[in-house]
Every structure is written in structure tokens, then in C-alpha cells.
Design a protein that fits this description.
The structure is a homodimer of 342-residue chains. By secondary structure, chain A is α/β, with parallel strands linked by helices. Chain A has three domains: 44 residues, 434 Repressor (Amino-terminal Domain); 122 residues, Rossmann fold; 141 residues, Rossmann fold, CATH 3.40.50. In chain A, 43% of the residues lie in helices and 17% in strands. Chain A is built from twelve helices and twelve strands. In chain A, strands 2-1-3-4-5-11 form a six-stranded parallel sheet, sandwiched between helices. In chain A, strands 7-6-8-9-10-12 form a six-stranded mixed sheet, with helices on both faces. In chain A, α5 packs parallel to α12 and α8 packs parallel to α9. Chain A is elongated and about 90 Å long. Chain A starts with 15 loop residues before the first helix and ends in a 15-residue tail after the last strand. The N terminus of chain A is likely disordered. Chains A and B meet through α4, α5, β2, α6 and α11 of A and α4, α5, β2, α6 and α11 of B. The structure holds a DNA duplex (16 and 16 nucleotides).
DNA sequence: CTGTTAGCGCATTCAC
DNA sequence: GTGAATGCGCTAACAG
């Protein structure tokens, strides 16, 4: 077999053999100089490394991976890079992976299960572990991949597979309580993707807590969840007569804010809105009351779990829950006097 | 050498040899069935693939890479995943890479040259090409890596290295013209990172066009560029007496908007703000007039250029410029009557 | 401490 | 059209 284009640019890359020949040692010794210097005399290590340096030798990761089966790569697949929920998570995951010396493949499924599977297929062969954030794949598929490689899920609850769940229930409950205390009696839940674990969880939390406090809640969809669909939801929401809304995520809430403004509904004076995820900070107008979801932590924890699993740690039943809480800003206020009576 | 932990989970992954044995052909034939089916009889291909399927065989990318020198991976390094400028670019780059069957490593330098170099070092050995977006590395370093692998730069202008530049000058000039027509005479440029090519380009465009139209421009820094620093810039800006500001990017502009609101300065009635990049859409309040930077296209084009370079295409002097234009929304308006005269 | 030997899984010359 | 042999660059037993 001929040498191919591997190093077509600055000539052929030096291999372990060249270094070995020049330094007058065996290839194994050169290998050890890089992987287990402690096994060699300091003198040898020094000499070999000097030669390697001069030659510009750098270990070929691919060859090493083939030999050891460890390539130091992990993959992270998200459902939508452009959703502000993910970047902080990606960043945190990267940071953690970096510290462990791992490289991370990023995949973007764009909410499409087929694409997600395609990516998975491409990654699986060259990674030591995977993390799937908000996976839209069906359970059976996920199990298949989880059987082949350490795999951890974010915001997807599958029995027996390590997962980290951002538990927005406490925050959502607090939000409902907050709204109730402000005198709201009828509220809307602006719902997200039906296949989303987060959406199901939030919807249930809203219903449960609302029931407990005797609030009426209606559901208005915003699908796919985005600024645009949130904006569109404004009209049906005000038409429904509710005085407050809690949205699937901050983006939807932000759109709702805009839609409300366009309808001349003053927030928070005549309508209250609360978001979810807390990814927009105070950048909305008015600053959004929202449920803080610690998405960055999720990325960090997921990679941590993946690492311990890769290193043979307990891969049993791990279901890591991340807490949430309500952040009250300026988009919520006392319920307005009833419209009908005016 | 013993088998290692590669497939510790569901037993050993089937190799080409197993498929060969079961289908009663040689390993070479199995290999061909996957890489050059045309070389084999249809019957053979069919049979081999059937067996492979049943066994769950899937070609080992790493082994293939070692043999061919092509592993189908590329790396994308950005300076800050969390900056809304990047996600659309990342998404577009991924999409293009996907179509070409490539996997992409994502690196996040967090604006730190040292981290950027670390990442580069980890990636270089296992990718066929790299794209560096808004690299903070010094030119010499970049040249070294570019000599080893096909490499394309985004928003960094280094002679001899393929680069795609988002040319915001036309948009910025249009913005200045727009402001001038609205009667503004004194404006501020809220500047970004000094090492950023984009910042230099924008600053120069502002100066040039302002000079041409006889506007006075002062510079106020917002570093690092963010919502927070933009917000902080509001005070010195109103103190300076200018009536309009053009910000390094949308995030800074958004912060400025908030800072202005906190200072009770009405936008656009008493002050005009224009952003840069157009990554926030209409989500700000008021909707931001901004220079559209087509960041998604940049990612797409960069990967395209990288591909052609990887395939031995002309790697000569390529300097791809992406155009920009002004998007007028609601954050700009006529210059207010002069404050002093009131 | 260091050298020798034997693969990792695959793609590719050559023969046939 | 297909098989046998060889090597990609490296690491890991096994000796010494």
C-alpha cells in the first residue's frame, strides 16, 4: 500500500520507527518514552524526546487508538445547537471533557430522529462514550447504542440508562405558587414538543400544582417551540381570558412577550408571563420571571457520569436529578381586576 | 496483545474476518463489498452484506483510517460557543460536513489562545482539516498548523491562508449613512476585542464613513463584548453627548439598550442604537436595527472551501468575502433636538 | 530497564 | 471476480 495524502503538505510525518532509528533504541522504547516515561531511565527518555522534537515527531492518534481501543473521543448530540438552551450545556460539557483530555464530536440532530441516528452511526465507531441531550430517538434505538458504548442521557428518562434530568418541577411549582399568590386564577401553559420529556414534566407539574391551589389551567401549543410560535400564541391566550401564562421555555416566553406587546397588553400590569430554562438572563423586556434550569450543570454532570462509566465505574441505575428554582424578575405581577367587570 | 475494553458491553464487535468466515469468502472480499461493491458480483455483495447485517458488523473507522489515512473528521474551533453569533455558524458548518459524510469535532477556546492551541494540538492528529472561527492565535502559530493540514479561517485575514471574511463594512457604512440621514452628528462606536479582525474592520468602516459624512465619532470600549459590558457602556455614552451608537455586536447593543432604559433614555426617540451580526432577530426591545452578517453562510462556505482543499483543490490564495447589509428595525430614529438648547 | 514479537482491523497491491 | 499476502503506526505481552 502506498502512502496516501495524509501529510501531503509538509512531507511525510515522522513515525515511531524513524525516531527509534535515529535515537538508536527500539520502537517500543520510543513508544514508552511517550506513554510510560516512568518505565525508562530518565536519560533515555530525555534523549528520545530530544530526537522526536528535532524530527517533529508526534504520536499518531489513530494508530494508537487502533492498538489500544481507546481514542479519547466522546460525542455529544443535541437536538438544536441554535436553541440558547444548549450552548451553555455544550460549553460545560466541553470544559469537563477537556480537563479529562478528551476531544468531543458535536452532532446536531435538528430535532430529526433520522438525522440523530445517522450521526450516532457515524460517531459510535470512533468514540468511547456518548451523551445524548434531549434525544428524540425511540427508546429501543437508544438501548441498542447504550449496549455498545457507555452512554448518558440528558433530559430523557429511560430506565436502566444513566441519565441526568433537569428537574424543573420544583421551579414550576414555585412559579404556580407565585402566580397564585399574586391572585391569578386562570392560567395557560404554552406547551412544547410532545415527545420532549421536559415538556411532559413541566406540563404535569403545572397541572398538579394548579389543581392543588384551585387554579384553572388551559394548554396552548407552541410547536416547534420558538420565538415565532410563542408570538403567535399570544392571540389565543388573551382570547382565552387567562391572566397569566407559563411557557415551555424562555424562547417561547420571549415570543409571547412580543406578541402581547403587539396586542397592546401590558406586562406585567395586565398579564403575567413566566418562562423556563433561564437562558436569556435579564435581556428580555420586561426581564423575564423564569424557572432556572441549570443547563450548564447538566452538561458538566453528564460528562462526569460518562467518564466514570467509561472507566468501568458503576454503570448501574443512575438517575441524577438537577434541582431548579424560580427566579422572579419583572414579567409577573398582581392579577388585574377582572376584565368582565370593567 | 489482548483484546481491551473496546467492546466490553455487548461482547466483541464483529470484524471483517468473522463476516468473511461466515459468508465463506476472503476478508478482502468483505472489504470490497463495503468500499467498492462495483468490483464484485452482485450476488457476492448481497450475500456478504446480508451476513454483515445479521452479525451486526460495522466497519471500524479507526482501522480504516489507519490504513487509508482518511478518517473523515474535521474540526471546528470557535472562540465562544455561548455567543449567539456562533451557533448558527456551527449549525451550518455541521450541515455541510454531514452531507459530505464528515464528523465534526467542536472546540471552544473561550477566547483563550492557550486553550485554542491545546485544542488544536489534540485535534490535528485526527482530522483531515480544520476551520478556525475568530481565532485568537497569533499568525505564526496558525501558519504552522496550516502547513500540516488544510485549514480555513473565518473572520481572520492572513495572507496565503484560505479565509472567509464576513465583510461588515458595507453594512456599517449603510448604518452610518442611515444615521446621518436621520440627522445624527455625533455618534459612538462601542468597540469589541482589540485582537478581533471583525472589530478592527468595523471600527475602520465607522471611522471612514463618518469622516466622509462629517460625523464625529468617539469610541467607547465594551470588553469583553457582552450584554453586561454593553449595559455598562450606556452611562459614559450618554455622558459623552452623542445621539447614536453603533455597537460591535448585537449582544453589546442589547446591553446598551438595557442600560439606556435604566437611565430613562428613550430609544429611539432620544437615542438611536444599531447592532451588528443580526443574531437576535426582532427579539430585542425595541427591535434592533442591525448589520446583517450572514454568520450561517460563513460556516457553510468555510466547510465547502475546506472540502475542496482536502480534495486537492486549489489551495492557493482564497479570500472569500461575504456581503452584509443594514436591517432597519425600530431602534433608530431621527436625532433629537440638541440637548444643550433645551 | 530495554529489545523482540505479535497483533489491533482494514485496504490494497498482486496473482490467479 | 476473488484470494493471499503485506503494511498503516503503534502498544502490549514476554523475555532478558
Amino acid at each position: 500500500m502506498k502512502r496516501d495524502g495524509r501529510e501531503q503538505r509538509s512531507g511525510i510525518a515522522p513515525t515511531i520507527s524513524q525516531v527509534a532509528k535515529v535515537s538508536g533504541v527500539s520502537r517500543a522504547t520510543v513508544s514508552r518514552a511517550f506513554t510510560r516515561p516512568g518505565m525508562l531511565s530518565e536519560e533515555t527518555v530525555r534523549r528520545v524526546k530530544a530526537v522526536a522534537d528535532k524530527l517533529g515527531y508526534v504520536p499518531n492518534q489513530v494508530a494508537r487508538a487502533l492498538s489500544t481501543g481507546r481514542h479519547g473521543n466522546v460525542a455529544l448530540i443535541v437536538s438544536d445547537v441554535a436553541n440558547p438552551f444548549f450552548p451553555p450545556m455544550i460549553r460545560a460539557a466541553q470544559l469537563h471533557a477537556d480537563k479529562a483530555g478528551l476531544c468531543v464530536f458535536l452532532g446536531n440532530s435538528d430535532e430529526d430522529p433520522a438525522r440523530e441516528e445517522l450521526l450516532l452511526g457515524r460517531f459510535i465507531g470512533q468514540v468511547e462514550g456518548l451523551v445524548l441531550a434531549s434525544s428524540r430517538l425511540d427508546e429501543a434505538q437508544i438501548r441498542i447504542y447504550a449496549a455498545r458504548r457507555p452512554l448518558v442521557l440528558i433530559n430523557r428518562d429511560i430506565e436502566g440508562i444513566t441519565r441526568v434530568l433537569i428537574d424543573t418541577a420544583p421551579g414550576v411549582e414555585a412559579a404556580i405558587a407565585h402566580l397564585a399568590e399574586l391572585g391569578h386564577r386562570h392560567i395557560a401553559y404554552v406547551s412544547g414538543p410532545t415527545t420532549s420529556w421536559s415538556n411532559q414534566q413541566r406540563r404535569n407539574a403545572v397541572r398538579k400544582e394548579a389543581a392543588k391551589r384551585g387554579l384553572k389551567v388551559i394548554a396552548i401549543p407552541a410547536r416547534p417551540p420558538s420565538y415565532g410560535t410563542g408570538r403567535l400564541a399570544a392571540a389565543p391566550i388573551v382570547a382565552s381570558g387567562v391572566t397569566a401564562a407559563i411557557a415551555f421555555d424562555d424562547l417561547v416566553a420571549q415570543g409571547l412577550l412580543a406578541g402581547l406587546a403587539a396586542l397592546d397588553v401590558d406586562v406585567p400590569r395586565s398579564f403575567s408571563v413566566v418562562g423556563c430554562d433561564d437562558v436569556l438572563g435579564e435581556t428580555t423586556y420586561p426581564p423575564l420571571t423564569t424557572v432556572s434550569a441549570r443547563c450548564a450543570d447538566a452538561g458538566d454532570v453528564a460528562v462526569g457520569l460518562l467518564l466514570s462509566q467509561m472507566n468501568g465505574g458503576a454503570s448501574g441505575e443512575i438517575r441524577h436529578k438537577l434541582n431548579s428554582h424560580l427566579v422572579v424578575r419583572a414579567s409577573t405581577g398582581p392579577a388585574p381586576a377582572r376584565r368582565k367587570s370593567r
